[in-house]
Amino acid sequence: MIADPSSNPADAEANLLSVRGIGKVFVTKRSFLGRTLASLRAVDDVDLDVAAGETLGLIGENGCGKSTLGRLVLRLIEPSAGTVRFDGRDITKLDEAALRPLRRRMQIIFQDPMSALNPRMTVRAALGEPLRIHGLVKTADEEEARVAELLGKVGLRKEHMNRYPHEFSGGQRQRIVIARALTVGPELIVCDEPVAALDVSIQAQVVNLLKDLQDELGLAYLFVAHDLSVVRFMSRRVAVMYLGRIVELASAESIYEGPKHPYTKALLSAIPVPDPNAVDDPQRPARIVLAGEPPSPTDPPAGCPFHPRCPIARKGLCDVERPLLRTIGDTKVACHLAE
After folding, report:
1. What is the model's pTM?
2. Cβ contacts of 170 within 8 Å, gap of 6 or more
3. pLDDT at residue 12 greater than cutoff 60
């Protein structure tokens, strides 16, 4: 059963994926004796939940930690702190042998399909390899039939299986990457900006494909993207990240129709308007231009990490005390001044 999109379930056992206090610190400089001299906190104390069959969108500026968080929940990167529970089981400390059976149930779609595919492997080899590794096929004929079936699911033909990645367009290559993610029957897929490298005309086709596959197979997505329109179309709930932290989390409707965090408001005000006449529409929120650049994660500011750029920051509060996520209506927001 799909969770209420307006909720942020507190019961970790009720969710397919439940992340608590996850963090990742990368050491950027060490002394000759191995002491840490400088570090970068890419993800900082993040909580999130994804129910079976749900899409949680994850948005924010480049470098805010979205992709790192996606890799952390799959244990492609080892967390520095916190826990990841998949289907009620804590996978944070599992060794590779214990984690391997769960790999089938958690997959990822990378941003650049060309770099995600081995240029020396045909499509049949790329899709057949995980089938053989996980013992899902027993004969070559069975493997060929399964590969052909997977290609059909993503809109490609059987004769495509003997071609190499360079023989396909960008959109076709991303369909192959999606088919490869489906080979082992996953329940959760991390979509790491899956349409960012594609032409605009192809993006809608791939997004619709992901939506159709979710409806058909009951997939859960953690959908990482910076295209706010795509996230709105795909997601039931949306989390907004800034400098490694979640600053707002709510249903997609609440985020897009009534954002509460000043950073979320600034992001949404920057969405391009296709109708030039709508730019001057008094009903449209005014464009919010943020001052300066995002702070460096190697030297984050004290207090609220957004306060140096925030148009409503209050001195003596926002620059001193870091806000925690609090609930306002159906929204969780990390802002002292949000109402």
Report:
1. 0.89
2. 113, 114, 197, 198, 199, 202
3. no
